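Sample 1 of the test manifest.
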Amino acid sequence: MREFRVRVEAIVPHGSDGRVREFALAPLPGERLPAHEPGAHLFVHAGPAINAYSLLGDGILPDRYRIAVQRMDRGGGSNWMHARVVAGDILTVAGPNGTFSPVPDARHALFIAAGIGITPILAHARAAVRWNRPFSVIHAHRTPDPPLLDELAALAGDRLVRVRHRNALREAVASALRCQPVGSHAWACGPAAFLDWFLDEGQRAGWVPERLHVEAFAAPVQTANEPFTVSLRSSGRRIAVPADVSLLDALDGAGVRLPRLCTRGVCGECAVRVRAGTPDHRDLILGRDQRATASVMYPCVSRARSAELELDL
Amino acid sequence: MNYATPLHRVAWPFADAADAYRYSTNVVGGRTAIETPAGRWGDTVTAVDATYETVLAYRRAILDRDPRRCAVAPHLRVAAWDALLCVLDLLAADHPDAMTLHREPGPAFRWENRRSGTVQRFAFGDESSLPCPPLEFAAREAVEDLFLLEPRNGSLVLEGAASTFAGSWSPVFDLRMTFDELHGPVPRLHGMGIVERTERFLLALPPGEIVRRTNWSLHDAGDLDASLENAHRHQPAQAMGTGNLDLGELRLRIEVQHLIRLPMSGCLLFLIENQLCPLAAIATIPAWAYQLATVLERLPDDIAAYKNLLGFHPEVVAWLRENSRKSSEQAGTERDSLKPEHRH
Amino acid sequence: MPPLTHPAAADDIAWPPRTSRPEWPPSPPALPPGATAWTLLSLGSPSGEPLARWRRDLAAMTPQPPASVVEIDREALDGWLALLPLWFAAEAARNVVGWRIAVAGEERAVLAVAAAARSAGLLPTEMVLHADVANGKRVYCPSCSAVTDAAGDDRVRCGGCGRLLVIQPHCSRRRGAYLGTLVHEAKEPGDA
């Protein structure tokens, strides 16, 4: 994925607690920002990490990118963005990466946003308004002053339903999933546990998986790591992967350096084909249904269920 | 129409030293220049040569009389605008002396094509600012056939076409088909896994990257419009190969295909430049004539039939060998050998 | 610049040959579970078997989804097909996501319903299709775009422009028709 640099033009705090900061990013002189699909995210070098942030715009020949960063207080990239970045700074970014895209022939679009999951949904609503596509939005928030809600409300008008609590969200979504016109699709962005529930509820409501689209913000809690071994097809070489080392790092240690960017299972750069063995997929790229049969894996986060994997390297 | 692509820019479709033709994904990066015994091709994505005005006029005439040739599924509105911008950008980048695309706030654009005489201001996404739908407008400025492939549920679907020069197929009929269904009629292709592999490759193509490949067949006419829509206008050279037909007038038909992922819609744009090269012209390049004769001679029957060779296969091979020998003798030269680093 | 390689392009898995001609199994497929409503159609089907089979499938589901049933016999089929687009749009408007269809009968009718269903927004996984009668194909003429009913399997004269067409094993689901390619008809001996 192509890396490039942008200038932080402005920083806007949202909400009374300042947990969310919006960054407006401008191109460098003489450059243009790449256009993109709505729902796409941008990878940002944020101090100790490379994080993915959804772009708030619909991607039509943008002059500026806008991202909204929620401070997670885990000592990672979001804290760095809040504490260290000021207007005028140059950031290194990559992408945009469009993995949460519209379905242009959907007869109706149902958008569901929980908390900071509002960011890609805002982009989708903006695109739907621009291209005159029918849609409705359910937005759930717990704080009294949710970031970007006024912008969403201005776009969606009476197509927006707001709920405050987890149960109210699930009721609203379950109800909405049972009354969408034939040919509708649904997009949900929020915590992983909610998205798992959403996919299950969609299927209970008779939706085929192709109609349900999710964008996760954080991978679910992982099971404890076990050591395993990989063998490389080309040489037969076997490499041990200890419990506390990622497959990507173990390969590095053995002199096999794969491309990488985000190192957290989002960007797909480190993709490698598996020829034998059963991977333990922990990425955010493969759909739930794909994991059982996928022959590709992402070694930055994924590991093995079987004792050994044979990689196409 | 009796068209022949200027020899110096013919995109010879057979890899160096290849004496047999088999399907492959044979993809390279766009704008890779290739030297040939006749000249050079491949530095640009779009073709604008001395024949541009003639070909463009023919293209526009076909679009005027047969509007079926331009069809985009209504839901691909964004992709059509995405494609228009892409094509005009490519033309302006490839031929800056003749074509310019100015960007204005809006976003709006001013397109100037000093070869075709077109000057057009338009607003992105505003159909009323163009004299015709966006993909058609692009097709009226370029000689390439344009196709839009939409990614859906892990496969590609042909959902848009602006095509006047298709080779022996019907883009109109094939609209809405998946990549797999489109290639249904091609012998052996599926059995080798190529269609599935190519589709996966294309689905993974990131925005901004341009890839290119070539394809070839034989045709009995110099008419660029070899589509099934136009078949009723051709009288086939009576089962090619009987005495009446001048085999030198047969055309090697070459497609130079470029693929680009469009950034705002995620759709794939397929540009296909169609080249026609008479066998008589090929005979003047002994290395080409030799190679083509050998490839054709060794072509399995089912592929030969698909490439329009049925019924005259041996005659064409014989003609090529005979006429390239004559050409070599006249030139008094040994058979050329292509430099090994020139790969397609 | 060297040729591009990509992980997906390096795959060596053999793939079975296929054409775009629809292939129908000898017996109707089972209805998959998960739908919240069904519409079952039997269009010119010689036997009641597909409908009976599907009714049994539905009865075995818990909860049993509601189903509406449409049965059209051969004689009435042409007339019904003429009204299909409007009928299908109305049927789709009465339903919500979760609704699926199952169609059995003459191939041309099954393909026509599939095309109408796609237009209404249904996905291929929301349709169960089964042709158990193959008495004729609809053939598309690329010269004039007319679609003509062909009795045989080989050739047909286009009902729009009169040209003779060879029926190719290349089928468009959207049109519910096969591609016809032009046969250049021989002139009298003595002509060029």
